[in-house]
Each structure stands twice: as C-alpha cells, then as structure tokens.
Write a structure and sequence with these properties.
- With about 375 residues, the chain is α+β, with helices and mostly antiparallel strands.
- The protein has one domain: Clam (outer membrane lipoprotein receptor (LolB), chain A).
- Helices cover about 30% and strands about 25% of the residues.
- Strands 7-8-9-10-11-1-2-3-4-5-6-12 form a 12-stranded mixed beta sheet.
- The longest helix has 16 residues.
Amino acid sequence: MAVIAAGSAACGTAQAGSPQGKVENAFTKLGDQKALTVGASFDASADQIWSALRGEDDFTKADATLLAGLHAQYAVSADRPLTELTSGDKNVSLGVLLSDDPAGKKNLIEVRQVADALYLRADVKALEQLDTTATGKNDGDLDKLLGGTDGLPSSLGALKSALDGKWISIDKKFLDSLSALGGPGTSGLDATSQAQLVTTLKNALLHNAKFKDLGSHDGADHVRVDVPAQQFAKELKPGLSTALKGVPGFSAAQLDRLDDVPAKTVTADLAISDGMVSGITVDVAQFDSKAPAGKLPLALTFTGGAAKITAPAGATSLDPQDLFGLIASGLTPGGKAPSSAGIDQMLKNLDLSGLSPDTSTGTTGTSDAGFFNYTPLT
C-alpha cells in the first residue's frame, strides 16, 4: 500500500493518454484494489551486485551472492479499497515473506497478522545462513538447539513447532506487552505506517517529475520518470523515518546517507499492466556519486486483487508461559538459564491480562500454501 496513492500528486493535471496520465491512472486503479502484494529484490546477478558495492565497508562476495537471491514480499488485504483505509483500521490483514531463491518461492520466514493474532513460521537453519560471517561454532550451536527439540515436554509443543519450521500463533496483546519492555512487538506491521509511506512517496516520487513513454515490452507498458535526486531524498527521509520507526531493527541513522546524494536527475522505470502499476525499477547506484562503476537495479513488483490474507491452517498456539519455560529449561546455545526469580519478575512486568490461546483453525485443508505464491516448508 506504500505507493498506491503516489500518482495522486498531480491528479487531474495530465491528459489521460499522456505518459503522466498513464501513471496517475495506474496508481489510482491499484488503490482501488482490496489486496496488494509488493515484492522487492535486486534485479542483478551476484557479480553485478559485487561490482556496484565492492567499495562498501566489510562487503564481501558472499554478501553479494546472498543479496542476489533475497526476495521480500509485503502484503495487505482489507474489506474495502486500500485508498479508503484510515489510521488504526482494524479490518486489515498483513503479511511479510522473505525468501532466498531466484524464483522467490522458497521461504525463509513468513509472518501474518490476522485479527488479533500473529502467525509465524521460519526455516531456522536457513535463516542462520544469512549471516555470512558465521563460523562452524555457530552451526554447531544451532544444530545442538534444533537437535534438542525432541526432548521438549508436550507443554512446549508450540516452541517445538516453531523450531521445526511449522506455523505457530501468538496473541498480539502479548507481543505488544513485550514491546513495552523493549522486546519485539507488532508495531512494524500496521496500516498507520503504510499510510505515512503513501504520503511520503507521493511527495518524493512525483514532485517536479518528468515522464517519457518507453513503449510496451515484456507484457507491460513502460514509462520513465525523471526526478531531481536531492529533492527526492530530502522529501523521502523524514517520511521514511516516521513510517519505519516501529519496524524491528530500524534506526533513523540508517537514512543519513540520503543527505549525501548527488545533485543530479535520477530515473525510474514504471511498468503498467492491466491498467495498474505492476513494477518500478530504479538503479540505486544513481544515488551514490562515489559508487564503483556498474548499475544496481532494485525491482519493486505490485500485484493487486481481492484475495484475503487468512490465518494458516494447523497453527500451534504459543502460550506466553511456554516461552519463559523455554528460557527456564536452558535450551539455548549457551546452555545458561536465568534464575526462577528472574523469570517470575519478567512475568510480573508483562501485562498478560485478556490473553487467551488462539483457537482459530485457520484456512481449510491439510496444508497451507500461504497467501504468497511460494513453495511451503516441508
């Protein structure tokens, strides 16, 4: 939903058949959808990524290979058109998927937020491989952790399911309470952030932009958008900082490089299919005057529709007490558990009132292929 209203900045000022008019209408139609999936990946080989980023601190060829395969998808669905959603809207379901194969179909982790529950499954072993600096000891510690799941008591079944790559469900109230203590929460998954990003990209992408029709190829109409880089970065930074502040691991300092973009015009290629924006490709190397020779195209894909994000079938409910039971058991790579008094204090600090195990059965069927088009974990 982050860019579905971007075309409204100049709405009504361009003729429908002009390149600018095509872009406006394409964003408008995308916003009329009740569901949207946005994908992000580098449209480049490992060698191309290495050529473009080899001057970065501690960047290795292994990192380039990793980035070449990573694909991220973000999905949102609602009971009405996305442009009609308001901040804090409750009738919204969200999903995030990270995969690491060129086709974007082998998932590393998937998260869905449906109603008051968060659903999660992950390939823990594969996620560990994302750390290109990991040592053999890291692998051994993880193998020890995963190998100990069969010894877990039945009361910790949800934790075993999580470590085995199966779906688990967590009460959103528990995560929000945990977030208040500095732990992970669900603030990064909300419609408010998306609404903020709409305004941000609307202002940054189309202010003083020039449009050129590039014709049709690969099943889509293409329009080139030229925007002043410094203006784009200036308008993008504060909005991104506000919109992403709730995302785990995000720091506003990560956006400081936007202050150093060169005074030049940058271009983006917008693809339009079935009257809707279906892709945006931009060479991010344009924003770094000191970057080595070579392009680094970042590709965003957009798929609109009406398919709802649903709760997965067969998810095992994670009781908050089970989580602390895992900590108490010492089932960690280091094998050290906190004292029982420490665990008791952690529980007292959490507001667990109103929590109840998730009893939803999720989608029907014996397996769940997910909202996204990928190959489920087996």
